[in-house]
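Researcher: Structure prediction, please.
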Amino acid sequence: MDASDLLPPGALDGVKVLDLSRILAGPTCTQLLGDLGATVLKIENPVTGGDDTRQWGPPYVQNPDGSDSDLSAYFMAANRNKRSVAIDISTPEGQVQIRRLAAEADIVIENFKPGGLAKYGLDHDSLRAELPGLVYCSISGFGQTGPNRDRPGYDLMAQGFGGIMSLTGDPQGAPMKVGVGIADVMCGMYACIGILAALRHRERTGEGQHVDIALVDAQIAWLINEGVNYLSTGTLPQRRGNGHPNIVPYDVYETSDGHVILAVGNDSQFRRFVDFLGLAALADDPRFASNPARLEHRVALNDILVPQLKRHTTQAIIQAMAERKVPAGPVQTLDQVFASEQVEARQMVVDMQAEPGPVRLLGNPLKLSRTPVRYAKAPPRFGADTDKVLNATDPFAPDS
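Model: Predicted structure follows.
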């Protein structure tokens, strides 16, 4: 009996996904689909030893003999609820195998360079003629069109080209990337949304379609207020460290024993905040009485607040703000994050049993009341399901 037999059907139960992607954006998308109940066949290159991220360690899960397995922490972050099938798509035999699997699939997802699968007859145009109902998703750095379509796409380059690095970091420092591969992750999430929309369209019409998504497009889309600030004014936004472009005070401040986050979102909160500091008069000072005024006099206000906040401990400020209903919080390290009762209550750490041994993974944030996410299969060893899938009459059949 497979672990999935003990779980309620997922929202995407019966949906079949052929995953030709690797690294992070595509695998993030297909892990989400798998968590929601879809069957995902992850195709890995036997010539290279599989997904690049299998080698992006340490750390790795240890084999029983103490050696490193091919399950790096990076790989495991985006590859649960999948079966690993080793196929060399550069060979005629491999191409036949992929076309057979695509004929059984609802979704194909790939992140080759635009046009990279055409020489194998596995691109969207090649498969569409014989599989008109197929939802085919292509992820690339710059998309299938445009002057940059042939440029390679990596998260760091997307953050640079898409502008987020110009907004991130200390005002006097260098442009700074976000601490994790957020352009990849957000691209994978947008891809998942596009795929689900295409599936809905197919339900109504029987017609598949091509979902074309680019890392850079996705990154530009989540410039959100800063992007629209620029489009509205033509004024380039400046790096503000942890400060907010439209709200003051909204920042990380030094305390007597660490740091505290303050997010004072309106004028009444500001009045209660400065009262705690013994600076009640600031709430009536024309320079600070309204948020637009505080934005204009940001530096002057912080010159007053910074030394006052350093007189208090982090916890004292958080407690006082809670009593005054002013948003405030800590800057936690990961040991504090994962030890918190909130993380436990929300099941944001998942314990699973992989082939070498137990692993701990990040939970899915979706909480669905009728079709909860499923943690049916731990991240697979390379090629673990090849023979079973390729020799099966129904390659997407549930495990028995």
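Model: Residues 68 and 379 are 15 Å apart (CA to CA).
Researcher: Thanks, that helps.
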